[in-house]
Write the structure tokens for this entry.
Amino acid sequence: MLLPTDRAARILYIEDDPDIRAIAELALEDVGGFTVRTCESGEAGLLEAPGFAPDLVLLDVMMPGMDGPETLQALRNDQGVRDVPVIFMTARLQESEVDHYLKLGALGVIPKPFDPMTLADTIRHILADS
Amino acid sequence: MPYTNAPDMPAKLARLRERFLVRLSEDLECLQKEADRLVSDDDGGALCSAYHRLHRLAGSAGTFGMPDVGRTARALEKVLKPVACIEDESRLDSGHKARLFEELSSGLQVLRSLAGHQTSSAHDPSLDKANVFDRTRLEGKQARLLIVDEDTDRASLLCRELSSYGFDSLEVSVDAMMTAIDCAENSGVVALLASPVKVPKVRTVRNSSSDPAILRLPIFAVGGHDSFDNRYELAENGARGFFPDPIQLPELVERIEKLSADQARGTRGRVILVEDDPDLAEHYRLVLHLAGIDVRIVNDPTRLLSDMAAFRPDLVLMDVQLDGYSGVHLARMIRFDAQWLSLPIIYLSSEDDPDIQLDALSKGADDFLMKPVSDDYLVRSVQIRCLRARLLSDLMNQDSLTGLLKHSLIKQTLEQEVARCRRDGHTSAVVMLDLDHFKTVNDTWGHMVGDTVIKSLANLLRNRLRETDLIGRYGGEEFLVVMPGCDLDDAERVMQDIAASFSALAFTAGQDRFHVTLSAGIAAIHALSTADESLNAADTALYRRKYNGRNGVTVFRSGPQNAPQEAH
């Protein structure tokens, strides 16, 4: 899967932890060179997605309210953003869970905690492998 | 690829990290309240919210450079998982809740200690910078010490002082000790420091482990009053060393250094096995391999010398009766080569006549192992000889005071690095370091104190630099460091940190306390064509630093900015 080359790729990161949102912005914008928007919940992400038109969505699995898998389902039902690739971010990483998330239609799963210096590279690798 | 170079990244990360630390301490308070609620009447939902809090910490702390906090939180999260967020938590029986409370409390103690540790290092800007640098560039492994002391003030003071020597030390209670060991994967715990009263309990807890690495952890008694009875009692209780009040820090650091070097050495070893029975050879190889020893099997004696040159063994195990060759002659042949004169050669033989054995020994080998040899006996004989061989070669190559490389060897290392830079095109730096006004130290307090200062700098360098950096004692108070794959800016930053830490060390001589500073000159190895040129450049930079007031670092930069400045 390729990201646009004529402009910075847009990433929407849906995550309930404000500290993680802040450091992810650094990791993806300052280090990674992406354009980033963050949202604090699945509900907010769904409202934001159509206007922002992300090239990729990063989705935290465990959130209060709509969790990651539910948010993915809702994105898939939304005409405007149904094809946008999604990567899950999770602090629980067991093989069975990874398989489960991939079957739900995620492009990949990134384990938390992530290293802010290499997060962007990890994302690019996942995209290049798919 | 739109990779942005982010020069202000470390500062931004440090700010976010501070913010995270604030929230961490709030989280820890909440967790303690939730734990307390478990053993009170009002415990509805306490487990569930503690579980979610721990889950979030497990997933985030590592991102902020605190992997230990993350791992500890993860361990606690696992403890709570089976019981958290079930329909009616209050139906858990009180014994179960009390056990959960215990586990949660001792885990929280470790978390608080780790968090406090982070906060204290965050306040020291030089340490903080070093942390970011370490995490993003250097993969150097830091030795961690655990301190168990009923006097928390003394323990925190010791923590701070040890950290200025480059050790990562952590104050814990006896109950929290095992959790702290388990959660320290990346920076392995190398020693337990305990106040004399705590030594027996620390030993009991350590010995309850089934992990041989933990059972081997040495316990040092620190603080307390020095007397024969105290010493005897501590020895009886399994302490490996005793540093009574006032604690002589350089001595303590020296002991811990030696110990971790010996431990690292003990697990390695390289053996050439000359044996023509392939099944037996494979069996020996496997047995030794399981004990951490690398083995190369030579079944064709004509290839022996070339295999030795390539493998650089610590020891040769030689079957005496080989098909068509005699092991005795092969051993003598190995000794033709001057570089193998001190290499231990051990015969594997079924010959049990002592006269014949002696005859064989006089012809070039060092010892006999009788076949059949038990696995355990083989491993132990080989390990002890590998260790001695290494110690001997260290003695020949290392400066006896500091354990650093000797002058000739560090210079040779620099020459190799010049060649590697030319071949691979990478950047490397060389540093010339010199203690300021060292003669005054010797003249005022004597050579013993001067030696302590030199050893302390050697230990600090070893602790702060990466394992791949090479450190040598170049002259009396002069040190040379070769930093492969390191550019001038990184080398400068690291050396500035080291210079700052060194100047903060307080030395004692009788009633006096004093500080010593250092000057360093840095040059790029890859920019110059010979070892001598880069040495001269580093020396020039060092000279400029001395001229400009000492206590700091000067970099030799070739190019226009280095040309004589014109007067305006």
Q: What stands out?
A: The two ends of chain A are 6 Å apart (CA to CA). The first strand of chain A starts at residue 10 and ends at 14.
